[in-house]
Design goal:
single chain; alpha+beta; Beta-Lactamase; Helix Hairpins; Heat Shock Protein 90; five-stranded antiparallel sheet; five-stranded mixed sheet; 10 helices; kinase; transferase; phosphorelay sensor kinase activity; membrane
Length: 466
Amino acid sequence: MKLPAVSLRTRIVAAIVAVTTTATAVMAYTAYQVQADEAVGRFAWSAVRNTAADRKVFLEFAGPESADRLGPDPDWALVFDRPGGGLEVVRSAAGYEGLIPVPDKLTMLRAVRGDLFPPGKGPEQLTSRYTSVPQTGRKVFVVNANLPKDGYHLVEFFDFSRFDDDLTALRWKLVRIALGVSVLGVGAALLIGRRIRRPIAALSTAADELGAGALGTRVPVKGRDEVAALAASFNTMAARLGESIDELHAKDRQQRRFVADVAHDLRTPLASMLATVDSLDHAEPATRTRAAEILGTQTRRLAKLVEDLLEIARFDAGKADLRVAPVDLADLVRDTAEVVGTEAAVTATGDVTVVADPRRVHTVVANLLSNAVRHGAAPVTITLDGTGDDVVVRVADAGPGVPEELLPILFDRFTRGDHARQVTEGSGLGLAIARENVLAHGGSLAVHNDGGAVFTVRLPRGAANA
């Protein structure tokens, strides 16, 4: 059978009440036992002491008047224990209400005879036992004092019922105290449960609001306990979730813009190619030749765009393959400048050897040089610094530099220096691909203006630095 759901507050209250009640009951029981044992010990000691004093009085006054001096409290009896025979009450307290009848005294003494009158006890020794009155069941503490004359004993009967009533009153007093403490425990438990439940309820409400889309939901952090730590963790989670959602929205906007830019950049060469196809049948040879040149140019541009898109897709899928090897960046930069057809002054200091993918580093340098030629101006300089832990490559030109509004987004996809997006040789993906290639090596790519655009590539040495 499935148990009914119990709230956290109820469980906390039940736990506190259980602990409080148990602790109070144990303390009350322990206190009662300690006090009862001490009180019973004092009662027995007082009774034995009283009997010893009465025995002394009995011995000091010989004759019948000695018994009269004992009085009725406590009840007493002069008992003769016949050797091999029975017990006989020679004399007993009489003439007062509440005294135990002689027959009952004899019955009680016979029940404890072996313990109360053990053989071999000297005249100065006392013995005691608990017993009860046969007719009433009243508990009695019996003390025996041996007399010098063989077989004679002074026996005194101390009523234990009044003392037992006091112990009963003590028990009920402790029970009332325990109940009072339990009630206070319940009140304290309710207050504590409310204080604990309040921040947890706030967390639950905040979680519902966060789940409903309120990403700015936060809860106050009060104190330094576990609930406060939970609230802080919730706020951290909510902040990270908000950041993740913002990043997803940004990625979504970037994806939509990417699709639109791809469609635009594909449409431009395709439209040019479609417009040129009709010119291939023109009667003039010069017109046909020009049409063929345009088709070739746009086809190469389309192929380059497709190649760049595939490269971007590989980076997005995390499938960019790095085939690393020791690379002398000075030689690689000079070869790249020659391939691109750019005149650039190359200077190197220190050890500029890194462990990297030569093809991808070549792509980075080629894109930076092409960008310097297309948007900058001569002279183009390339400076390599291998004196630190990383190798730094700086490509600078003497052009107008990067417009300030483009600096934050220069490495985004399809970012161009021409705002009108007129037909240009670039696809707007070169710098984005260059940055992805540098990041794949664990490096960084940055740009700033200093008499022209200055691109700074920082590459770790990799295995060559180990």
